[in-house]
């Protein structure tokens, strides 16, 4: 296991290939980077640069073709499928760009899914989910189905679902894309609060320059490689 001062996430030599017809396309090239606890890290880059692929690998959703990923001292791709699912339920919250809400259940039940999956009783899980929806200023929509919500409201339900089980790692794909400036800052304040909590980390893919100032660290990807690692984003991004 990692020591107290070890990085929260270690990524070493990660490559990822996809098949394009009969050709193999490499979208990540030998990515090696450590991410610390209590840090709000952004992944920035043009569409197709590999950002979503990289965070999916960090979150245990997409296997690397080569390389290793260690999350809180666990080599996640050495786990069995069942162990990996359990590890994600315990440690990782993922905010998808497309929301991925269950259409047949209301907002509170959608937000409660990680708690229910861990065995919590439905009424307790919904109560905790409603508390998170309240923090996101959307409690009044708790009983509505996803198709009764706006895009921004669905995004906030998805964010509540990612945070409700208090994961140690939160991974986000464009969490403010569907939100106005005020709602986006509210969400980022909450994500930063989570990220500053002891032992937690937040990694965000974003093109939203309205929130660049909130980052502790910005990694720029170009053509599947990290080309910049610093506090500020280069002017051409």
Care to give the gist of this entry?
By secondary structure, the chain is an alpha/beta fold.
| Superfamily (CATH H level) name | P-loop containing nucleotide triphosphate hydrolases
- List SSEs in N-to-C order: EEEHEEHEHHHHEHEEE
Instruction: Work out the helix count.
Output: 7
- Strand fraction equals 25-35%
In oligomeric terms, what are we looking at?
A: single chain
For the residues shown, what is the average pLDDT?
89
Q: How much helix is in the residues?
A: 25-40%
Please tally the β strands and state the result.
10
Round the Cα radius of gyration to an integer and report it: 18 Å
CATH topology: Rossmann fold
Number of domains: 1
Overall 3D form: globular
The CATH top-level class label: Alpha Beta
Main sheet makeup:
6 strands, mixed
Low-confidence stretches: none
Please give the alpha-carbon distance between the first and last residues: 37 Å
Determine the structural class based on helices, strands and strand pairing.
alpha/beta
What order do the strands of the largest sheet run in, or round the barrel if closed?
6-7-8-3-9-10
CATH architecture: 3-Layer(aba) Sandwich
Describe what you observe in this structure.
The mean pLDDT is 89. The chain has one domain: Rossmann fold (3-Layer(aba) Sandwich). The longest helix has 16 residues, at 181-196. It has helices spanning 51-58, 81-91, 107-111, 113-117, 122-135, 151-163, 181-196; strands at residues 9-20, 23-35, 40-44, 66-71, 74-75, 92-95, 169-173, 201-205, 217-222, 225-230. The strands form 2 sheets. It has a 6-stranded mixed beta sheet, sandwiched between helices. The protein has a 4-stranded antiparallel beta sheet with strand order 2-1-4-5, with helices on one face. With 237 residues, it is an alpha/beta fold. The chain is globular.
